[in-house]
Amino acid sequence: MLIIEDLHVKIGDKEVLKGVNLEIKAGETFILFGPNGSGKTSLLMTLMGFSGYEVVKGKIVFKGKDITHLPTYERARLGIGMSFQRPPTIHGLKTADLVRLCARNKDLDVKKLAQKVNFEDFLDRDINSGFSGGEIKRSELLQLMAQKPDLLLFDEPESGVDLENMALIGKIVKELLSGNGMEPRPDIPMKELKKIRQVSGLIITHTGYILDYINADRGQVLMNGQLCCEGRPRDILEHISKFGYKECVRCLK
Ligand SMILES: Nc1ncnc2c1ncn2[C@@H]1O[C@H](COP(=O)(O)OP(=O)(O)OP(=O)(O)O)[C@@H](O)[C@H]1O
């Protein structure tokens, strides 16, 4: 689904990614850990193709196509969607209109979709205008539910979310990763279900709360623009909780 090869990225004069190699297969969910400022958000922003993130070396291949220099809207059309840590406020653009734009479907029943994330009362408000931390996350999820991407990028889905809303957000993230609300299929064995699931995820987390709700396959730590310490996400989290990121620094040497 996604292949990143020797990716080097600069923001201005600063090299924030220094040779990232990563493959995420169809149906796989990958968890990205790392200390503040290590380049996690920059990686997601680069995958989405935002300006300011200059790829100076390496390439990004999505569904077999080299997307390294494609504009953001083309990446979104190909099936990449992102939930931002701090999305911008857009005055003059109603939430409902943005959700319709994400779906590329004027007839979408936005209200019905919004009910799934308790967001009906926000549809007439300008996007993110005065939204609380938890409301921003639910707005981001609503846009992704409309877009139905094949590769979901989540930048800290837990940040600013209370425990009750965390359960809702966890449930929706799980649904999106399982193929956007795919109906439960008790008739199909787990092993087979995994084979037909084609949605992939790349999730940044500091706290790991999201791991209580989803099936995460693999994880890695991003340290100073380089990936290291591959393992099971729970094991990585436990290790970081006990020892911090010291070991990862040694791992890179
Ligand atoms: N627009 C910018 N101009 C200059 N430096 C930037 C810019 N955006 C990011 N950086 C720098 O790039 C580095 C990586 O930032 P990034 O946001 O990717 O880190 P992160 O791992 O996501 O951190 P956090 O866990 O705190 O969210 C940081 O040192 C940051 O200050």
From TrEMBL:
Pfam families: ABC_tran
Native source organism of the sequence: Desulfonauticus submarinus
InterPro entries according to UniProt: AAA+_ATPase, ABC_transporter-like_ATP-bd, FeS-cluster_ATPase_SufC, P-loop_NTPase
Tagged with keyword Nucleotide-binding: yes
Source species taxonomy: Bacteria, Pseudomonadati, Thermodesulfobacteriota, Desulfovibrionia, Desulfovibrionales
PROSITE patterns associated with the record: ABC_TRANSPORTER_2
Keyword Metal-binding set for record: no
Keywords linked to the UniProt accession: ATP-binding, Nucleotide-binding
Top-level taxon of the source organism: Bacteria
Family: Belongs to the ABC transporter superfamily. Ycf16 family.
GO molecular function per UniProt: ATP binding; ATP hydrolysis activity
Protein name, as recorded: Fe-S cluster assembly ATP-binding protein
Residue span, ABC transporter domain: 2-249
Matches recorded under PANTHER family: ABC TRANSPORTER I FAMILY MEMBER 6, CHLOROPLASTIC
